[in-house]
Amino acid sequence: MLKGAADEMDRTLYVVPVPILTPKLSSHWLRLITDVDLQTARSLVDSMANEVVVTDRKIERITGHQPIPFREAARIALQQRADRKRRENADDEPADASR
């Protein structure tokens, strides 16, 4: 997933082994290098301890939702993030004084 997200952002993924990495330290690191809040970072790190494999697909029939591949989901999420940041930056620009 990290490699796929890095590819979508046209970035190189650097993996640096560390001697000790606890979930708490991992979530702080994630918070440091991304714009994810600490609670979300902790939830993401904690969820990585459990591999999730879908075997029961009834929810798809109930909701009408069809899953999409990770790369597509990453592309959509990254575009939405860029759009949100663009809107936030536009809101932060000072109003034109000549108007």
Explain what you see.
By secondary structure, the chain is an all-alpha fold. It has one domain. Helix content is 58%, strand content 0%. It is built from five helices and no strands. It has helices at 2-8, 23-33, 38-47, 58-63, 70-92. Helix 2 packs across helix 3 (38-47). The protein is extended, with a radius of gyration of 18 Å. The relative contact order is 0.11.
Map the helices and strands.
Elements: H1 2-8, H2 23-33, H3 38-47, H4 58-63, H5 70-92
Helix pairs in contact: 2-3
The general outline is extended
N- to C-terminal distance: 48 Å
The count of domains is: 1
> Helical stretch count?
5
Q: Oligomeric form of this entry?
A: single chain
